[in-house]
């Protein structure tokens, strides 16, 4: 039974993955026979791929960026999380593996993009980050170093280090509720967050379309589309008295 059936938790960490944006029309990574927009992940999401075929990698991310800028809108699950954060009186941190900006467009505030952001690019030489809504061409001259071929998507590729890990582990070590939403639990370190939070004494909950890889480790599960299960779960939490 949930320790939060009578009162609200005090410190919450939420992790989201591609499933939270699926109903906004953005494809998940592992629901399409292992192919991601018709590419193998290694072809487009590794530093080696960018060195070997920068044009292909830029085109791939340009297409995803345009879809995000021109078509995708936050859905009810993004909105429920933002609304919860604005009304919750305890500590709240949203960690997302997603590179879309639908959480912030829905109004989420305390948000860390551990795998980078699609609407940003950066210089591989100086690490300067720039906002970007238009396509990026690999011959383009970098504004900070003036060199061609230096600007790259601000995305954490396979084999690279995720961002904000110190801050994330600090919050996990101190939370009393951890909620994982719309992630298959295949990619570390995010796939290990549930165990870190549980060892720190937190109650852990999975909200996903179906049971994920490590589903049996969670204390509580609710399976169904994010727009339904996330909304219901966080609305119910808001109705409880403060802990
Ligand atoms: N509502 C809730 N969950 C959903 C929905 C939905 N409407 N649609 C799909 N899902 C679930 C799937 O069942 C699956 O468990 O979302 C999960 C998506 O899993 P993945 O495609 O593996 O995405 P994710 O876990 O975010 O991937 C992690 O892998 O390649 C990388 O860096 C990339 O951040 C990404 C990381």
TrEMBL record:
Residues that, per the record, bind substrate: 61, 64
Cofactor note: Binds 1 zinc ion per subunit.
Keyword Ubl conjugation: no
Positions with a binding annotation for Zn(2+): 123, 142
Organism: Sessilibacter corallicola
Entries under SUPFAM superfamilies matching the protein: DHS-like NAD/FAD-binding domain (SSF52467)
Protein name: NAD-dependent protein deacylase
Names of the cofactor(s): Zn(2+)
Gene: cobB
Function: NAD-dependent lysine deacetylase and desuccinylase that specifically removes acetyl and succinyl groups on target proteins. Modulates the activities of several proteins which are inactive in their acylated form.
High-level lineage: Bacteria, Pseudomonadati, Pseudomonadota, Gammaproteobacteria, Cellvibrionales
